[in-house]
Amino acid sequence: MEQPILEARSLTVQRGGHRVLQNVSFTAQRGEVFALLGGNGAGKSTTLLTFLGLIPPESGEALAFGEPVHGNVDALRRKAAYLPETASLYPHLNAWENVRYFLSLSRSPRPQQDVAEAFDQVSLAVDARDRRLESYSKGMRQKVAIALALLRGVPLLLLDEPTSGLDPVAIDEFNALITRLAGEGTTVMMVTHDVYGACQVARRVGLLRRGEFVGLFEAPADGMISADELHQAFASSHAG
Amino acid sequence: MNPVFHIALDEWRYWRRSRLGAAATLVTLVLLVASSVVTYQTVTAERQARDQLQDAAQSIFLDQPARHPHRMVHYGHYAFRTPPPLALADPGVDQFTGAAVFLEGHRQNSATFSPAYSGPQGIRFANLSPATVYQVLVPLLLVVVGFSAFSRERELRTDQMLLAAPVGPGQIWLGKTLALVGLALVLLLPLLLLVLLIGEDRLAGLVLVAGYAVYLLVWASITVSVSARSRASSSSLVVLLALWLAVCIVVPRGASTAAQALLPIPSKVETDLAVADAVRNLGDGHNAGDPAFARLRANLLAEYGVDRVEDLPVNFRGVVAEASEADLTKVMDDFAERYAGQELAQAQLLRWASVLSPMLALRAFSTTMAGTDLAHRHQFLREAEAIRYEFVQGLNRAHASELTYSDDMQRSRDAASEKRTRVSPTNWATALKEFHLQVNPASERWQRAFPYLLLLAVFAALAAGLGLSRRTAKGWA
Q1: pLDDT of A79-102, one tens digit each?
Q2: What are phi and psi of A15, to 5 degrees?
Q3: Residue B67 DSSP code
Q4: Residue closest to B131 by CA, chosen among B184, B185, B99, B86
Q5: For testing the chain A interface, which of B18, B156, B161 should be mutated: the one with the most A CBs within 10 Å?
Q6: ipTM over 0.85
Q7: Hey, which of A115, B108, B352, B466 has its CA 20 to 30 A from A34?
Q8: CB pairs under 8 A between A and B
Q9: Cα–Cα distance between B242 and B246 in angstroms, integer?
């Protein structure tokens, strides 16, 4: 079997003196969309931040591209794009400036045309692109952040609640975009509490509950994961 | 381009677009330009005026008609302290100490006419010299502009985007500090222009500007480092303002008060009384019959093999005046040096406090390089005293050699004698040398100023170490 792009091996993580991940294991293969589903406080975002090298594991390992993340943080960050839950961009800059700035920091400048195409792909209104982000809605900021992640052109996308704040049309467009990128070989790991959104794009969904990995759902070869089945599992795990 | 430069450029863009940063920078720049222009005009005028006054005093003395030489001893002369060229940047103690000394026989007068207390209103504003603005207000500007450099990223949650970009905490620190240093360098332009405009002492001027650059680097590093360690911008601002208050106001003021309390200097009146007490037994130089000069008389009579002072080939009254002035000056010099030593001890204590305040380190560096520190004031007083002693003794020698004792004794009763005791004005030129205070060579000033620059560099390294420490990085990554 091909080496996984992402792998959690018995990952245990503490934050602020509390254990937020306990003995979590999963993998994500090249070109796969892997979703981690869980309620508030399940440890979803912590998992992403651990893979970004922002939080060290207490025990176990977080591997990316076959290498432990900790100790290879810079190398990993060059190959991964991160989209936080709340698109954290600069309010004093417009969309062009924000994207250009972050691209220049990652030493991957892109021509204006590519940036415009990325904005088109995320349906960012043309007349909004020259406005500073201080006047943007949450959804508009999210679109800019998604465009930025796309423009990085990296083989790994780490997305934290990526459709949060997007309108239904934009969510559909985003899902189509993610599916296309995965088809082109990009590995996507997204964390979400949106059961239906996860089913639409992910081939495998891991279920987290209070820091523990409690289930893995895989889509059949010819279809999608059953949203009802996943919802039921999510609801029962949440209730338990 | 390196991400560090992108971060620095974005920081500039942020300041430009945030009204507070732009307004604070503009106000400081206006203040800098205004203080530079006013100080330039004031000090230039002072330099010209004092040079002219010195020349005028010289001419007036030399133009005096034939007189009794001792009348010229009391007629006196003035020595003016012309500000050194770099006083335009940092007037130092020159603003508060006397600019002129009246030179006369038997006395070492204090310097009078300090610009801060005797000048017109324009000079009052000149007290806000470029040096003061750079030492006190520019750091405040750097704090106001840079306090949120790091903490803002945390509050906007852009820190994670930056780290994931990927740039490390060290690069972010460097970028933000570079931005603040860039602003500081822009603010240093008026000082650089001033130094280049002066046209004299340029090398020392450039070293002076370099010292200010290191000082502002300290503040830029401290500001960004505190911001990097603060959870919120508000706490960063509070810590930095407290630090500014301590470094620029509390420590200098406290150190000055402590120096005065620990090493008190007697007042002028006390010193004058002590001098009067010490010279009491030296005899009155105006009275050749004073018993204090009996041995001098005996020695002189023996030397020339005569029995009466009237038979001496020199005027005994002139000899007494010369000897008396020498003894008197020795005592006065002793007091003056003791007083200067006490002043220097106080200043030294203040300079020790530099280890607690980069501002005090810069002030010591700046006044030393500008030639406006206490050591230069003492040099002025010593050189003025040397001129005084030389012309007084020159006149006393003329008194001894060109007048007869009997004419000298009769002159208040006999018009012919009085006329003969008037010596030619050519004696005035022989006795009085021209006085022009020269600032010490730049190399000498640099030698004395270097330890303070080194101390500033240590401050800068410590501040950078705080920002780049593992603990700061751990709080971020």
Answers
A1: 888 888 777 899 999 999 999 999
A2: -135, 130
A3: B
A4: B86
A5: B161
A6: no
A7: A115
A8: 64
A9: 6
